Amino acid sequence: MAITRGVVANMWCPVTAALAVTGADVNQFMCPQAPDTHDRTLWLSAIGAGAVPTTATADLEGSSDGGVTWQKVATALALVATSVATMQKVTNVGPGILLRINLTTLTLGGASSVTINALCA
């Protein structure tokens, strides 16, 4: 089950629901403050249900006003291309920034849905 609003720490956890269409996911998350106070690296991974999707591309969006408006943090993250899932790394993610995944392209192929997992390191 994906978190609806939470903190992603040093372990993989789902940050979206099971997605079957493109668009911004309702789940929101953030990276915690690092002990050394530096920005974090966010890793993203797509997990297909039943099979690997054919394609999945996403934007990472951030909000500075509690989720009222959203701005692009990273764009065109190719999580799956030609049925090959590839982890994507977004560097210099500031702690405490409200984030969400906006799935911009999705071709499910044999998969019934895709879930995006994240890890802040």
Would you mind describing this structure in some detail?
This protein has 121 residues and is mainly beta. It has a single domain (5-120), classed as Jelly Rolls (Sandwich), CATH 2.60.120. 0% of the residues lie in helices and 53% in strands. It has strands at residues 5-7, 13-14, 23-24, 28-30, 40-48, 55-63, 71-81, 84-85, 88-93, 98-107, 114-120. A 5-stranded antiparallel β-sheet has the order 3-10-6-7-8, with no helix packed on it. Strands 2-11-5-9 form a 4-stranded antiparallel β-sheet, with no helix packed on it. The chain has a two-stranded parallel ribbon with strand order 1-4. A hairpin with a 7-residue loop joins strand 6 and strand 7.
